[in-house]
Amino acid sequence: MIAEPGSVVWFAGHEWRLAWRDWIAILSGGRRKRLRRAVIAMAIFIVFMHFVAYWMVGRYADAAPDKSTLVAITGSVLLSWLLMISQAMESTTRAFYSRSDLDLILASPAAAEKLFAVRIATVALSLAMMALPLAAPFIDILIARGGWRWMGAYGLIVAMGATATALAVGLTVALFRVIGAKRTRFVAQVVAAVIGAAFVIGLQIAAILSYGTISRLSVLQSQTLLAHLPNAGSRVWWPARAALGDGTALLGVLGVGLILLAATIVIVAPRFGAYANTAAGAAASSVVQVRRSTTFRAMSPRHALRRKEWTLLQRDPWLVSQTLMQMLYLIPPAVLLWRSFADGNAAYQLLVPVLVMAAGQLAGGLAWLAISGEDAPDLVASAPVPAGFIMRAKIEAVLGVVAVVFTPLVAVLAIASPWHALVTSVGIVVAAVAATAIQLWFRGQAKRSQFRRRQVSSRLATFAEAFSSIGWAATAAVAAASLPLAIAPGLLAFLAVMGTWLMSPRAQPRHA
Amino acid sequence: MQHVAPPFALEIAGLVKRFDRPAVDGLNLNVRSGEFYALLGPNGAGKTTTLRMIAGLLLPDAGSIRVAGIDAPANPVAAKRLMAWISDEPMIYDKLTPREYLEFVAGLWGLAPALAEPRAQELLGWLELVPHAQERCEGFSKGMRQKVALAGALIHEPQLIILDEPLTGLDAGSARQVKTVLRERVRAGGTVIMTTHILEVAERMADRIGVITRGKLIAEGTLEELRHRAGKNATTGGAASDQVSLEDTFLALVAEPAEAA
Question: Which is it for the CA torsion B187, B191, B197, B199, positive or negative?
Answer without folding.
Answer: positive
